[in-house]
Amino acid sequence: MSDQTDKDVDHGPRFRLKIRSPAILSTHVECWKCADMTPVICLAGREPDGTLGDVNNIVAVSPELEQVLSDFPLFQPLFSRTTGSTTYANMCAACGALQGQHFMHSQPGGPFFAVHAREAELTVIPIEGPTEVTVDLEPYHDLGDWRSADGA
Known about the structure:
With 152 residues, the chain is mainly β. 11% of the residues lie in helices and 43% in strands. It has helices spanning 63-69, 101-106, 115-118; strands at 4-7, 13-19, 22-30, 37-46, 52-55, 58-61, 75-80, 85-91, 98-99, 123-126, 131-136, 147-148. The strands form 3 sheets. Strands 1, 2, 6, 11 and 12 form a 5-stranded antiparallel β-sheet that branches. Strands 5-4-3-10 form a 4-stranded antiparallel β-sheet. A 3-stranded antiparallel β-sheet has the order 7-8-9. It starts with a strand and ends with a strand. The model is unreliable at 1-10 and 140-152 (pLDDT under 50).
């Protein structure tokens, strides 16, 4: 059974997910605002068949994962005027502009779009797991093989 933690007034349900084999994916993108190259990361996990799947729209992380993410200060909870919500997101190292979730994860050409097919282009940093995150499922279109924190 899924563990629905709450429902935001303006957004969809939130669920806790356990990521059994977590990793940080890292690359660089051109900032949409200042055009400088900036480092970006996302959280990912390995599916049972070994392929990578990205996790986005993260609203909360476990204390252990928060410690890991402290090594990536440009990835933090940021408010998006576009979505009207706060999620973990990347910001530009040069100008501080938020690098949007939709571009990063959902648009062809985005750095974390179809990560299972682009693993060779990304730096994959395995992290000790499993770990848990809370995600906003309203924009989350494909859970793939993720399991809820209670294992269901």
